[in-house]
Amino acid sequence: MKTTIRKWGAVLMLAGMLGSTAVLAQDPAASATATMAEEISPAASAPESVQVATAAVEAAPEVLLDSGDTAWMLTATALVLLMTIPGLSLFYAGMVRSKNVLSVLMQCFAITGLMSVIWTIYGYSIAFDTTGMEAGVLNFSSFVGGFDRAFMSGMTLDAMSGTIPESVFATFQMTFAIITPALIVGAFAERMKFSSILIFMTLWVTVCYLPMVHMVWAGDGGLMWDWGVIDFAGGTVVHINAGIAGLVAAIMLGKRKGYGKDQMPPNNLGYTIVGASMLWVGWFGFNAGSALAAGASAGMAMFVTQVASASAALAWMFAEWIMHKKPSVLGIASGAVAGLVAITPASGSAGPVGALWIGLAAGVICFVASTRIKTALGYDDSLDVFGVHCVGGIVGAILTGVFCFESMGGVATPDISMGAQVWVQTKSVIFTLLYTGILSVVLLYITKLLTGGLRVSEEAEREGLDITQHNERGYIL
Asked: What pLDDT score was predicted for residue 332?
């Protein structure tokens, strides 16, 4: 009997404890009473082990890492790398002649390796070292970072950038540094020496790309950051930057032998459409990843990226259908890329309606630039880097100043008027064109002196760069 009483007593005591816990969690009055009781009873009355555990929790630093953000940024980083290898590589390889297909693949692959090493040694530091930067103060640090972060100094396992590890942020930005110079390859395809490409790209990313990243994205004290430029994912930093360098290189190297006289059809448009498809998918990492978090901004960036690309693809297709009487696979692929380029600066501020208009404008304007204007001016931009990336980047950068406003369906209304924001965007475009255009000329002349010429011989060009530069063939039929 005593045993039974003890058992029931234990059960009732446990029920009472559970009941009081439930009341404390749900009843405000009970919660207040419990709080008062805790204040009256000093912590010293708790067992020593509990005191030590409580002190450890209170002393622990706030945990900043967000696993969801980190998982998304790891994915986005892989998607952006996919844009270059194999996306851009295949996109370009399909458009050149069969005797040059391997040369383009090799150039993109080599640039991937070269930029990864440069980024690790000093690129990340020049781009994102903020030493000496101060909001509203114009000094040398407004244009370029220092070397305090050279060789990734200070990057530890615990180093954070917002809610993600700094290592993830640095790798994500590295993929941007990879694809930007790789875009330029299309402008001088089929005629530039491989040695000249490697030297020029090293100089160009150091002098043109890294300072541009710093001026736009490094934060308070950066030249264009302080202007209030809206460039969410790289309209000026990536596309206008690479596009104007491509035009300069195409003009300085001169036209391909037989350009305008001989037929130069793409060797495999299957490669091109597959490459364009990979670019389209990878661009979600490019734009939505630039939110640096798995949140609403990333979601909207992904949506407007899809809408703008689709709108531009159709706009180019119909423009070509009207002008040339037939829609082409190359045309719709180029249109999709033009839309992706144009929405890049606006992907964090435009809404769905803005994305439709930006895509429509980019599709038509880039089509005209890559056909009528290119023919009228007579330059040989082999794969339309200027017509798609520079012109598309300009369209997107300027229209960002319009469609960022809520009155135009935007999601990030600035503190200034629409006209003022459009001027800020236009000013950034002009600065990028002048800065990179002039310096690209200088760097190409330096490269020419170092390599004994930018261009392969006429005989080598006629035989093809696959054999003469790499001693291999893309096709053995």
From this structure: 98
DSSP 161: E
Instruction: For residue 419, give its domain range.
Output: 67-470
- Identify the pLDDT of residue 62: 63
What is the per-residue pLDDT across 245-297, written as a single tens digit (0 to 9) for each? 999 999 999 999 999 999 999 999 999 999 999 999 999 999 999 999 999 99
For residue 341, tell me if it sits in a domain. Answer: yes
Query: Is residue 131 within 8 Å of residue 149, measured between CB atoms?
Result: no
CATH label of the domain that carries residue 334 = 1.10.3430.10
| Full-model pTM | 0.86
Residue 51 and residue 100 share a domain: no
| Residues 104-130 as b or e (16 or more Cβ within 10 Å = b) | bbbbbebbbebbbebbbebbbbbbbbb
Q: What is the mean pLDDT of residues 197-214?
A: 98
The answer to whether residue 171 sits within a structural domain is yes
Q: In degrees, to the nearest 5, what angle opens at C-alpha 39 toward C-alphas 33 and 42?
A: 135
**Residues whose CB is less than 8 angstroms from the CB of residue 403 and which lie 6 or more positions away in sequence, other chains included:** 346, 349, 350, 351, 353, 354, 355, 357, 358, 409, 410
How many domains would you assign to the chain?
2
Inside any domain, residue 234: yes
Task: Give 413: exposed, middle or buried? Use CB within 10 Å, 0-12, 13-18, 19+.
Answer: middle
